[in-house]
Design brief:
CATH topology: Muramoyl-pentapeptide Carboxypeptidase, domain 2
Order of helices and strands: EEHHEHEHEEE
Radius of gyration: 14 Å
Shape: globular
Distance between the termini: 40 Å
Number of domains: 1
Largest sheet: 5 strands, mixed
CATH architecture: 2-Layer Sandwich
Strand content: 15-25%
Length: 139
């Protein structure tokens, strides 16, 4: 099924986990994910077992600059500072503290780096860029 990230579950049924609309750069409409990122992301979402509202995923360098994103952001797919072949970051809305805590712990356990913001978690696979796993907060 084009336009959707899919994985095969243990009972061999394909389930749609993310649509292109959720992951796309708001400026270009492009969805370009780093090698392995789609699998890591869909596995995390399936294992978490709760809805995930995407605030941001793919960003062009121009869009990232426009919104004040970090110049070395792993959200950037077209001029990736680390030479990755696509986006390796996503921001997920956190409706409450319990949800945020559960997602944060699961993500860290599975090798994700996590940024904690007001009402969202930034999740990235900086290990794809040979960077150490981390946890940080936004001011």
């Amino acid at each position: 099924m084009a336009g959707c990230a899919m994985i095969q579950t243990s009972d061999y049924k394909n389930i749609i986990l993310f649509s292109d609309a959720e992951l796309a750069c708001p400026e270009t409409g492009m969805v370009v994910l780093a090698d392995g990122f789609e699998y890591s992301l869909t596995t995390l979402r399936e294992d978490f077992g709760r809805p995930m509202k995407v605030n941001s995923c793919c960003r062009s360098a121009a869009h990232n600059k426009k919104i004040g994103g970090h110049p070395h952001s792993l959200h950037v797919w077209d001029e990736n500072y680390y030479g990755l072949d696509g986006t390796a970051a996503i921001d997920i809305a956190t409706p409450n503290v319990s949800y945020a805590k559960d997602l944060l712990l699961m993500a860290l356990e599975r090798g994700w780096s996590v940024g904690v913001g007001k009402g969202f978690l930034h999740l990235d696979r900086r290990d794809y860029a040979k960077l150490p796993q981390g946890i940080f907060g936004y001011a």
